[in-house]
Amino acid sequence: MLFSEIVGQNHIKNHLVQSAESGRIPHAQLFIGQEGTGTLAMAIAYAQYLLCRNVGGENTGGNESCNIKFNALMHPDLHFVYPVATTTEVSKHPTSDKFAEAWRIFIKNNPYGSLFDWYNHIDIQNKQGQIGVDEAGEILKKLALKSYEGGYKIMIIWMADKLNTEASNKILKILEEPPAKTIFILIAENETSILQTILSRCQLLRFTALNSVEIEQALINQGCDKQQAALLARQAQGNYNKALQLQRNGADSTDFEQKFVTWVRAAFRAKGNAAVIKDLVDWSEDLATIGREQQKQFLEFCIELFRQALLYNYQSPDLVYYQTSVDRFKLQNFAPFVNGANIEEIFEELSNAIYHIERNGNSKMIFTDLSIKLTRLIHKK
After folding, report:
1. Helices 255-269 & 363-377, crossing angle to 10 degrees?
2. What does the alpha-carbon distance between residue 373 and residue 280 come to, in Å, rounded to a whole number?
3. CA distances (Å), 204 to each of 177, 199, 288, in order?
4. How far apart are CA 102 and CA 121, in angstroms?
5. pLDDT band for position 251 (50/70/90)?
């Protein structure tokens, strides 16, 4: 992975190259950025620059064997840590090394992939992934050894906000005083979930959302038609991973849209019609059967569709990018039911549902409660 392959973030690329060339390389850095901003891709490119010394961050052929190892993600001085959970293949004590081959495939297919994509890739079903104390022990063992090639040892911890408290405490000392030529690159989307003692030991680099021009050009470089690339870039809202997913699936809506429409139609009909409550309970039971990560993704999708409907209601159709595909459902017709009187409460209830899903609450109860509340909110003016 080279800096030239990364979409946007030129200011961060320049900062990393300049700090490396001046010999001022922090021993611990934390890349903070939302999904699709390129945090992991940047970390790999930075590691390749440091270990292979590609001039200006580019592959000039000067260290061909090193670049070959990196392209295969098998350089002996590059280590990865990422959230895992038990699966049918790994029934106990899951650590990153046990998923190494799956990780390489995942990164090669899309280094911009999300945590949700990763969980689907290793099929943890409805479990919650984490970086646990067993992983912390592996980190200490690996970094106690000398580098294979006499240069840096680089430890990339992806989704460091998934470090549990015990694991975080176990790596504090080595994070503060690492062995010589050891570099930590932590990556996270939510710094508030990281222990303050971890944050205080890292230099922070914040990644901004990509602009539509950067995403559009990247899609064109991937062979996408210019007109389609422009539409996808607008829909992606700064998230290159989302743009790639839309490109793969065509810009058509997924099963989430059908679930959303079924839900809001039932909630609308439930006022004064107790029989429809059963439809909402059935809907909740159906949604409870999918994995927790998918449930969270669905709720985030709902937040976005309510936001898009609100833009229609506030006479801002130019800002609406989502095109519905469910029969006889149009955002502009739904928009009058999303307004200033109810939108804050709707967002709050959806956010609360995500919070409780993340904490292993009973999915059926969460969705049933949310649905009943929506029957009241959707008629509020």
Report:
1. 60
2. 11
3. 18, 8, 38
4. 8
5. very low
Asked if the model's pLDDT at residue 288 lies above 70, the reply is yes
Q: Taking each helix axis from N to C terminus, what angle separates 363-377 and 276-287, rounded to the nearest 10 degrees?
A: 140
- Tell me: pLDDT of 54 over 80: no
Q: Decide the pairing of beta strands 203-206 and 28-32.
A: parallel
Model's pTM, two decimal places?
0.73
Tell me: the pLDDT tens digits for 310-330?
A: 998 888 887 777 777 788 888
d(CA 127, CA 107): 22
Tell me the DSSP string of 142-180: HHHSPPSSSS-EEEEETTGGGB-HHHHHHHHHHHHSPPT
Question: Distance (Å, rounded) from C-alpha 240 to C-alpha 233?
Answer: 8
Cβ within 8 Å of residue 237, ≥6 positions away: 209, 321
Closest-CA residue to 27 (of 163, 177, 139) = 177
* pLDDT band (50, 70, 90) for residue 57: very low
Task: Please state the φ and ψ torsions of residue 194, each to the nearest 5 degrees.
Answer: -100, 140
Rounded-to-integer distance, Cα 243 and Cα 7, Å:
12
